[in-house]
Amino acid sequence: MGYGLDTNDAVEIGNPDSDPYTTLEEWILDTDPTNATEALRIEWSGLTQVTTAWSSTGRTYRVRSEAALPAGSWTSVVAQSMGTGTNLDLTVDTFTTNAPHGALRIEVSLP
Q1: For residues 5 and 81, what is the distance between their CA atoms, to the nearest angstrom?
Q2: Which of 32, 34, 60, 71 has CA atoms 20 to 30 A from the CA of 100?
Q3: 75 in helix, strand or coil?
Q4: Which one-letter DSSP state was computed for residue 5?
Q5: 56 and 99 together in one domain
Q6: 70 and 97 belong to one structural domain
Q7: Is 80 found in the same domain as 31?
Q8: 13-24 tens-digit pLDDT
Q9: Among residues 27, 21, 20, which one has the least CA distance to residue 3?
Q10: pTM to 2 decimals?
Q11: pLDDT in tens, 15-74
């Protein structure tokens, strides 16, 4: 799929740059699986702002919440947003009131 790597199961489950993501996850995220500094990073900005420290213009992002773990059904708390090529700010105003002890996840997909 790129970056000089083969497309087989052994490569896809590998992690040549030793960051938190496998090669397959990096291909889904549209990041470079051979460069640990290029990875999706999530940061809180205040109580309701989630910022990705990087986003791809070739991917969409959606934040979902779950009130309790283990998860039952995840609820969208941010509409699907197109990546910008830089930081992507997502406002999550329902999470703090509806799921104060729950979890958030960011889904990344092709547009």
Answers
A1: 29
A2: 60
A3: strand
A4: B
A5: yes
A6: yes
A7: no
A8: 888 888 888 888
A9: 27
A10: 0.75
A11: 888 888 888 888 888 888 888 887 788 887 777 788 888 889 999 999 888 877 776 788
